[in-house]
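Kindly inspect both lines:
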Amino acid sequence: MNLSSRDVQAFLVLARQKNFTQAASMCHLSQPAFSALIRSLEQTVGLKLFDRSTRHVVLTTEGERFLQSAERLCAEFAACEKAMRDTAQLTQGHVSVALLPSLAAGWLPAVLKAYTARHPGIQLGVLDVLSEPCIASVANGDADFALAAIRADTPDLRAEPFCSDSFHMVCPRAHPLANKAALSLEDLTPWPFIHLARHSSVRQYLDAALFPRTMQTFVEVEQLATAMGLVQAGLGITVAPALSLFHFNKPGLVTRQLPIPDMDRQIYMVRKRERSLSLAAQALYQLMQDMRPASA
């Protein structure tokens, strides 16, 4: 059976008006064209839907049953049309993004504030996880796209440079390194060090830059906020990327940039290679591009 919304609308108008002339006028058709449309509909469903006389048009028993279905179909057509119109106008939809916790905490709030001001009907999902889970969330469809410190160029995923940030040493204000004229990695090795976990991008960049040197590790932690608390307590020093320095903006702490060649951390925007973004996701994707952090 091949019913169109036009067929259903014509049936409903005739069922309500009970007059071919009036129904044809309301459907902007001539009476012969409208009568042919109703006959075609009856042939399509294989049932007589109206009893016709020179004075009256009334629904048959089968027409009464079809009326219930037609009203449901009409409501579904209208709901579908509204949903597509709302989606096109970005008044409804859903977008999910995965990104590093430092970006999620420090940079993302201003982006989402701007986005929701423009598109208040869009539902948002945020996955604040490390780089590998970021990539996995895009691959398995949990996120539309991701910001990660891994260049995930694969047959299924593509990555483009988004921003980069430098690394900074963090120590107590009274520490001997706080006012040293110029810092190098060698300056850090004698001191107790607060390391981030080995699977973090910060740790991986730092280990690569230090090799074959090693640090005097005091403890390894998962969260930058924990590293901040330990440094603030005078238990050691640490290294953090510029985009996460808001964690260390605390009384008694000093941050100093490490001018080390080729140590800047690159952040990539990762998405499915062969799949277009939804309109809601594309709008957030573009806004993030427009509001990307300045390389620090």
Observations:
- The chain has a mean pLDDT of 89.
